[in-house]
Amino acid sequence: MQTYKTTSWVRAQSRMAELHEKRPGFAQHLIDIARAAQLAYEALMTAYGGQPIGIECRSPKREQWAFIAPNIQTMSPFRVQVFDADGFISHHGFDSLELAAEDMINSGYRVIDEGALHRMSATDRWATGIARLDIMQQVNDGRITWARAAELLNELPHIDVATLS
After folding, report:
1. What is the pTM of this model?
2. 101 pLDDT exceeds 70?
3. What's the number of domains the chain is made of?
C-alpha cells in the first residue's frame, strides 16, 4: 500500500534526531504541528488513491471549502480552488497534485466533505454571490464603470447572512 507523506513531515522526521539533542521541546513542537497535517494528508490521498481531484475539503474553523482541479489558465497544472456559501473566493496554482493537496491541508481544509460545491451552488445565496463576482469582473475588465457596478450591485437581492444557519 502506498504511503503518502507531506514535505513538512519528511523534513521534521529527518531533522528529529538532530533537533531532539539540541532542543528537545522545539523538536517535539515541530513534530506535533507536522503530525496533524500529515494525518489529514495521508487520509485524503489514501481515500482517493493519490488522486483527490474534485474532492471538497472543509475548514473546521470557518464555513469555507477547497478542492483541487486541473488548472487550464496558467502554467501550473493544478489549482486549489477555495469557495464559501457566496461563491468562489480564490485559487492558487501548483506544479504537482501532491503540492496542491499539501497546501490545501496546510491551509486548514482537512475535513473531507464530498458534494459541498453541489450543495452550495444550488442556493440563492450562491447565485447572488456569483452575480456579484461577475459584476466585479466586468469592472476589472473595463467593461463597466464603478458607477454602473454600484447600480447593478444595488439591484441584486439582499441576503441577510445572520439569519442563515
Report:
1. 0.85
2. yes
3. 2
